[in-house]
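User: Here's a structure from my thesis project, written as structure tokens. My advisor, Dr. K., wants to see whether a designed sequence matches the one we expressed. Can you design one independently, without my sequence as a hint?
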């Protein structure tokens, strides 16, 4: 579930927890990159939404869930659904954040989630304003007839702080042939 600026404010602990999970996952750079790059296929956004619901459901069905359990789920989903191996400890950080927010919502303290929501809205508004600026700027550049491309220099970007993501290679499954010479059909593992 991608949070929208028109979403109604949460009114109870469960709604705030769902919002906290959604915001945490949408703010996770590794998952955001996987979704934007469609590493999970054309339904990558839907997979993120499904993950939000699955985590919420996990807390309901297994209240003993802790940060380590949650981290395992995040790593497994990133690997299975997006072919991404997350080895930068960010899954643990997201799991810790969700567990901390769950503790707050269980106590009826919704202020941290509300702050995250307000920050998300501000960030979303900034993105749409920046998007409008970029569209206008692109139109202005199209109208220029000067050949000033040589005056612009592209500098190197420091990638030291970029998340460490490794796409897991897909394993080719060899077909199984039974005693009668028929090939066994095996569905995808989910």
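Assistant: Designed independently from the structure alone:
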């Amino acid at each position: 579930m991608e949070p929208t600026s028109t979403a109604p404010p949460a009114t109870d602990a469960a709604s705030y927890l769902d919002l906290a999970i959604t915001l945490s996952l949408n703010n996770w750079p590794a998952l955001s990159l996987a979704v934007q790059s469609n590493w999970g296929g054309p339904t990558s956004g839907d997979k993120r939404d499904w993950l939000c619901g699955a985590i919420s459901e996990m807390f309901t069905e297994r209240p003993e869930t802790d940060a380590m359990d949650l981290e395992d789920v995040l790593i497994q989903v990133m690997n299975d659904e997006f072919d991404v191996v997350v080895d930068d400890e960010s899954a643990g950080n997201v799991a810790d954040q969700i567990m901390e927010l769950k503790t707050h919502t269980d106590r009826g303290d919704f202020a941290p989630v509300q702050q995250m929501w307000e920050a998300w809205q501000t960030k979303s508004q900034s993105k749409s304003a920046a998007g409008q600026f970029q569209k206008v700027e692109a139109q202005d550049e199209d109208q220029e007839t000067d050949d000033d491309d040589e005056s612009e220099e592209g500098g190197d970007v420091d990638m030291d702080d970029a998340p460490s993501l490794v796409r897991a290679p897909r394993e080719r499954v060899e077909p199984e042939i039974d005693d009668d010479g028929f090939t066994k059909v095996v569905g995808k593992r989910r």
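When you compare it with your expressed construct, this may help: The CA atoms of residues 177 and 183 lie 4 Å apart.
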